[in-house]
Design a protein that fits this description.
The complex is a heterodimer of chains A (432) and B (483). The radius of gyration of chain A is 21 Å and the shape is globular. Chain A contains nine helices and 20 strands. Chain A has two domains: 272 residues, no CATH class; 54 residues, no CATH class. Chain A has 432 residues and is an alpha/beta fold. The longest helix of chain A has 18 residues. The mean pLDDT of chain A is 91. In chain B, the strands form three sheets. Chain B has a ten-stranded mixed β-sheet, covered by helices on one side. Chain B has a six-stranded parallel β-barrel with strand order 13-15-18-21-19-16. Chain B has a two-stranded antiparallel ribbon with strand order 1-2. Chain B has twelve helices and 24 strands. In chain B, 25% of the residues lie in helices and 34% in strands. In chain B, helix 2 packs antiparallel against helix 3 and helix 3 packs antiparallel against helix 9. The chains are: A alpha/beta (432), B alpha/beta (483). Chains A and B meet through strand 19 and strand 20 of A and strand 22, strand 23 and strand 24 of B.
Amino acid sequence: MNDIVSRYLEQFVAAGPDAGAAPPWLREQRDAAMAQLRKHGFPGPRDEDWRYTPLKPLAGKAWETAATGAADIGGIDDRLIAGLDSHRLVFIDGVFSSDLSTTALAQEGISVRPLSVVLREDAGALPDTIRGGIDARDGFQALNIAFARDGYVVDIASDSKPDKTLECLFIAATAGKAGQTRNVVRLGEHASASLVERHVSLDGVDALVNCGSRLLLGAGSSLDYHLVQTMDSGVNMISDTEADLGADATLRILTATLGGAVVRNNLQVRLNAPGGHCDMLGLYAATGRQHVDNHTGVIHVAPHCTSRELYKGVLDQRARGVFHGRIRVDRGAQKTDATQANNNLLLSANAEIDTKPQLEIYADDVKCAHGATVGQLDETALFYLRSRGISADDARSLLTFAFVNEVLSEIGVDALAEYLGEGLARRLIQHG
Amino acid sequence: MSQTERELAPLLKRDYKEGFVTEIDADTLPPGLDESVVRAISEKKHEPAWMLEWRLEAFRRWEAMTLPKWAHIHYPPIDFQAISYYSAPKQKKLLDSLDEVDPKLLETYEKLGIPIDEQKMLAGVKVAVDAVFDSVSVATTFKKTLRDAGVIFCPISEALQEFPDLVRQYLGSVVPSGDNYYAALNSAVFSDGSFVFVPKGVRCPMELSTYFRINEMNTGQFERTLIVAEDDSYVSYLEGCTAPMRDENQLHAAVVELVAMKGAEIKYSTVQNWYPGDEDGRGGIYNFVTKRGACRGQGAKISWTQVETGSAITWKYPSVILEGDDTVGEFYSVALTNNHQQADTGTKMVHVGKNSRSTIISKGISAGKGQNAYRGLVKVLKGADNARNYSQCDSLLMGDECGAHTFPYMEVKNPSATIEHEATTSRIGEDQLFYCRQRGLSEEDAVSMIVNGFCKEVFKELPMEFAVEAQKLLGISLEGAVG
């Protein structure tokens, strides 16, 4: 794999560290990230955090980062969510496309811009946490920092709320390319917003999506964040989302994975001040030879915070699912209330699930619970439906749909819930 | 400090009453480990040539291995060259009966309340005991009664002389010599342990028990236990351990292998009370143990019950490989960490056979600055149709400086498997204490009652005498002066 790193290095040198009008701090970050990648390389199967995930599809090839200037893919009308009235930024292979995006938002206190534009015009506006030194958790994150040239930057001023759902649509369009993006969402005190980050692809494309997002929630703010992925079965994806919550902030985050080849979603939430609350919802439906790995962690740094996590997955054919969830309660984070559940449905003899729900607790006055289940459809329920004249396939689909509906029903954006429901139904009927 | 914490603080003090040292001449190898030490141990034991080869092979593997770092425990690096790998009480000649055992040794076991005097035992409980002092077995009781029933129960060193083929057939068949760092070390230098063989259809007439004691300074104890239960047999085996109070850390790296054939049942209970170190975390035993059982035949059952109250660090995962169809694996555990104790313990249940079932009940209690982790693996292989697992891990926290952690792993490759895992974390509530006190119970009794209630599901799996001892031990561990 060293060979791959040196090819990335060649690409890095060829692109120039200051590509895309990078301010000095960013050049330093990119150099540092590249140095880190050269030193440590990509994770291996012996890394505890990666033991269940095949690394070859992700790191066995030096994907090319798309140059500036988005590829022309014609229209995107058929990729929009029906009934979702949104303010939209569109990225092709990780590069902002102004033609396909909606026109700039003219609402006071709300700023939704591509990173490339912010870096060119207003780099000082990026939060300190983005501009500081970096310490990438693994090789993929380092790769992202070294190569990302675009992404979205959302700034919501105190007490403001966008009048529409914000949507960032990423389209993997070119074979062999890597869409590397960095995103920032910052909410001022008592601000609120709903954001949908979607990843889709053109048919038959093999590509890599490697995106990193930082969510910064000010005191009393509230963010509904949805990471939705419905790509073709040739696209590999790594997403890395880190959230920091201030006092009394609320984060509701959904990670829905319906497509892709090898998909790894990292999510880390820190509850830094009292009163914070976070809901982590997850949904994955995998078929074929898909591999879906959800790695989540919530850190209770401050007392009097609550967190709730519910991940549900359906695995069919030769699909493999991985769930890793960790609740950490730091010393002093008393009165924490944290729960975590991971439920899995295996529909085929060749499907596999590896689940690791974990608790790490250093405070005594806390309520923490986690649970995990793996099972199949209830035979008696199937029999009940069949005895009422419902075909075996329909009965299976109905019960499977009921299983995932617990998560769907909690999605705040109705049009999105409907879209996901339809996507799931299509998959379940197709393969049920 | 809240009201409850103030009340609990004095109760958490403990004395380690087994911490005395027996002054006895010992035949001890100088510290250090190389091939010659392995050869010397094998020679002292008059072992057959294949055994020496087996040890040397393990030693070579061990040399090539690196110390595992994944466990949630912290300790300074161990200098494996500073440990003596063999220590035996000096004996003039071979023993014919208990009367010839050094009275000092008998006294030691008497102090510990371990009945190796058959006379006394006849009057009371009927348990056959094999006592292991530092590295060697000093006495095994009730040998004759057991032989009459067809049961072999003797030190493994003796078994290597008397039944070498039997030992050779099973030794390392469950825990291969290169299984992990400490198992490889054990395979190279183990000096004694117990061997149990229960023939087909025999229900072992009494509980078997081994008592382990570390006495010498700077020694490590490496014992190896091998239990084989043939078709449709049954055996219940108990294990207890203590060590003197010393300022330095001592290493205990044991290997236990269980083999249960068709329809056989093995029940293995441990009450582990190695010296845990003092209040500031000085001294104590490093307990790095590999325990694994294989349910080889249809309907075999292996049940592990453990009460872990001692040791500075506990690192053990009694496991069951459910190879046969309809096999059953059970794991019941209470682990207590107080002061600076650390425990990373749990189990592995590997479902291979159809309709195999496993149950995991783990209760962790953390007090003082103790860190307690449950780490478990439930693995369902492709052919394990209708495999069933239920896991429950509860943690009780006493004090705001301790930690309780849960790291379960579930790997499922069969859609007909049903796997459930639940974990909770809580503490002794002020309302619970208040309720008990209001009904006239003292604080000590209330705490002890709540803790015992918390552990009840596990204690009820222990043989009666052990359950009583375990309850007492927990009482002592938490109550100190009151106990």
